[in-house]
Backbone:
């Protein structure tokens, strides 16, 4: 870019916010408007799309020149408005040239929502990691189905009330409504794999925690990394335990992934995140993310001097109000922190008389 880089103030997308973004160098002062295309490196275009979500109102997608065609990285949510913006980009930015490949960093609908539509339109292959592709297909298959017994039991053990269980049952199966059907085959991305885009080498770096096998794309020649939700400048991505894997430890995976990403990237790399502004200062941000969660674990352990249910620990993990719109994610993240403490041998878990899990700090936690 010709514009001089600016050190921008912290403008969080949601609360709680992490003030480490004050230490980052952003490439612009303000975000471009929805529907815009901004070239942030040679042949790498930043596309900004609106999202119909409270608190997270946009997503950054990427169009990469590739010889006589283009590579798309992440596709936006599967709605009419996003399709209209893509049609404009296909005609104007891309000049009617074809999409050669569609890459999705991970399975969430704001990233995969229009992957199937774009692949079908251009006859392009879909590239994803195995874990993300198959879990996306699995969750889409739940659309229109009734909530499973395992999910109901999971949230009941977490401490949900009868009304909250009913709300979970009512909202279950909505994932597939936000995505167009994925192709029935895909090309697998693997950790450390390299491939050429526009004659330049791009390497796949895998992270976990926010999703099972999240792909980041790093180009050493351009010194840029498209990190999806694995590294954001203003917020820490949701790290949750879900009913499909109730004993999972995604927070430990997330912390390990932050350390792996730091070891894999230079400090001055330009980060293209899925939300927020492109920035430099990846090492500082990754260190802060680890510190953020470690401090939360320390607060949580102190809070569990008395037995606590997952629904009783929100106050030590979140600054925002927990309500019907964010309760599922909040309890999932609470359980992720509790499972992490349990995995480290610092808390014990038992079922109370109401059939709900409670967590209590072990007396010998200092020596654990």
Residues:
């Amino acid at each position: 870019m010709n514009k001089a880089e600016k050190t921008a103030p912290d403008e969080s997308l949601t609360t709680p916010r992490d003030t480490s973004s004050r230490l980052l160098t952003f490439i612009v002062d303000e975000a471009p408007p929805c529907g815009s295309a901004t070239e942030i490196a040679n042949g790498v275009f930043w596309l900004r799309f609106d999202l119909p979500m409270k608190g997270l109102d946009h997503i950054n997608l990427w169009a990469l020149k590739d010889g006589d065609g283009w590579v798309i990285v992440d596709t936006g949510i599967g709605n009419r408005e996003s399709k209209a913006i893509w049609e404009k980009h296909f005609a104007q930015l891309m000049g009617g040239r074809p999409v050669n490949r569609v890459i999705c960093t991970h399975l969430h609908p704001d990233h995969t929502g229009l992957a199937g539509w774009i692949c079908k339109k251009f006859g392009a292959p879909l590239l994803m990691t195995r874990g993300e592709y198959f879990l996306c297909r699995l969750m889409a298959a739940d659309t229109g189905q009734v909530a499973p017994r395992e999910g109901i039991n999971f949230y009941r053990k977490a401490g949900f009330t009868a009304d909250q269980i009913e709300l979970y049952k009512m909202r279950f199966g909505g994932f597939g409504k936000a995505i167009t059907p994925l192709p029935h085959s895909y090309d697998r991305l693997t950790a450390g794999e390299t491939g050429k885009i526009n004659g330049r080498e791009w390497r796949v770096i895998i992270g976990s925690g926010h999703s099972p096998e999240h792909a980041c794309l790093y180009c050493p020649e351009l010194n840029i990394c498209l990190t999806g939700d694995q590294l954001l400048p203003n917020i820490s991505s949701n790290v949750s335990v879900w009913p499909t894997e109730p004993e999972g430890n995604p927070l430990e995976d997330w912390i390990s992934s932050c350390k792996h990403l730091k070891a894999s990237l230079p400090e001055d790399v330009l980060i293209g995140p899925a939300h927020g502004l492109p920035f430099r200062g990846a090492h500082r941000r990754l260190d802060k993310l680890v510190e953020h969660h470690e401090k939360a674990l320390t607060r949580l352990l102190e809070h569990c001097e008395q037995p606590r249910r997952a629904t009783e620990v929100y106050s030590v993990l979140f600054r925002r109000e927990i309500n019907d719109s964010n309760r599922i994610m909040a309890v999932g993240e609470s359980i992720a922190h509790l499972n992490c403490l349990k995995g480290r041998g610092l808390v014990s878990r038992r079922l109370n008389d109401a059939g709900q899990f409670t967590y209590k700090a072990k007396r010998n936690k200092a020596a654990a």
